[in-house]
Amino acid sequence: MRRLAELTTLRVGGTPNSLVVASAESEIIEAVSANPNALILGGGSNVIVSDDFAGDVIKIESTGFENDESACAGAWVTVAAGHDWNDFVTSAVANGWTGIEGLAGIPGTVGATPIQNVGAYGQSVSDTIAQVRAWNKKTKSVDVIFAADCEFGYRTSIFKSQPDTWVILSVTFQLPLGTMSAPIAYNELAAKLNVEIGDRVSTSELQSAVLELRAGKGMVLDSADHDTWSVGSFFMNPRVLTAPENAPNWPEADGTVKVSAAWLIEQAGFTKGFTLNGRAALSSKHTLAITNRGTATSADISELADHIVQGVKAKFDIELKPEATFIS
Question: What is d(CA 64, CA 149) in angstroms, rounded to the nearest whole number?
């Protein structure tokens, strides 16, 4: 039996009692119906699984997408839950579908993106999701959940707040047709592209720039690079009433401000590469990622995360929250 360390991007996790690979929607429904309490795993990019884990696992590997396109509605693309997210972004750019090019390079599967409401560089999947089809474990039926009912928020959704209700089968995106990006809103991205804030570039140019930026931060998977043995950004940017002095921040609609978690971590004294034991460490490229240097255990990851949370709390009285889900 394969250990979950082989199936997760952080490369930690014990040996499951059973592992079922579901490659079609019917197989997903059948497997979940037979074992509704099993751990659902896609790309394994947003979970921290205990090395003591010994439960059952259903790995979703359904792939493919269908497009119903029109000049008025744009591309109405339904994508299987197990389809690789970055491959779908590449297909969208190649086909002249806009709205997700800024999300290039994010690891994981399409079915996982609504759960976390994945976002980067001014785009979130909630901007383009039209509906989600999911197996309801409680009613034993397929539900179609429209975007307005998904309760999307910053790195959250109804699927995250009610994890025991649905297993996502497919996601339908409504993507505008075109080859130009939305106006650039991030200084880092504008500088990389050598344009001004508010300028537009081709979607392929933006996709390439995002991939280069992510790679420079160790955020594009590479088995030879331990900086990429992570869950990506480990902590969410916290929302506070008043940002610390000089902290990068972004006003929110509810009157709060979102503060850079990476800045808080650095200002609390944690530098790139910081480690407690040499096995788990902050990335040498980016302080927002906790990485496995090759032999880390889930306990090592948790210990380092807790240490950083306590340090930031002591310095700023702000509590960092993880993006990833801990599985015991």
Answer: 25
Cα–Cα distances (Å) from 292 to 64, 123, 130, 265, 323, in that order, read 32, 28, 36, 18, 17
Angle between helices 85-95 and 203-216 (to 10 degrees): 150
The CATH code for residues 226-327 is 3.90.78.10
Q: Which residues contact 126 (CB under 8 A, 6 or more apart)?
A: 114, 117, 119, 147, 150, 152, 157
Task: Count Cβ atoms below 10 Å from residue 311 Cβ, excluding itself.
Answer: 18
Where do the CATH 3.30.465.10 domains begin and end in the chain?
A: 65-175
User: Tens digits of per-residue pLDDT, 216-250?
Assistant: 999 999 999 999 999 999 999 999 999 999 999 98
Give strand ranges (E) for 71-225.
Answer: 74-80, 119-120, 123-124, 129-136, 141-146, 166-175
- Of 187, 155, 193, the residue nearest 321 (C-alpha): 155
CA distance 289 to 296: 14
* Closest C-alpha to 180, from 195, 160, 166: 195
Distance of alpha carbon 16 from alpha carbon 14, whole angstroms: 6
Residues of the chain short of pLDDT 70, as ranges, are 71
Q: Which CATH number fits domain 65-175: 3.40.50.1240, 3.40.50.300, 3.30.465.10, 3.30.470.10?
A: 3.30.465.10
The class of domain 4-60 in CATH terms is alpha beta
Cα 229 to its chain centre, rounded Å, is 14
Question: Whole-model pTM?
Answer: 0.94
Q: Give the active site residues.
A: 155, 233, 323
The alpha helices in 24-157, defined as continuous H runs, are 25-34, 85-95, 113-116
Q: Are 174 and 76 in contact (CB under 8 A)?
A: yes
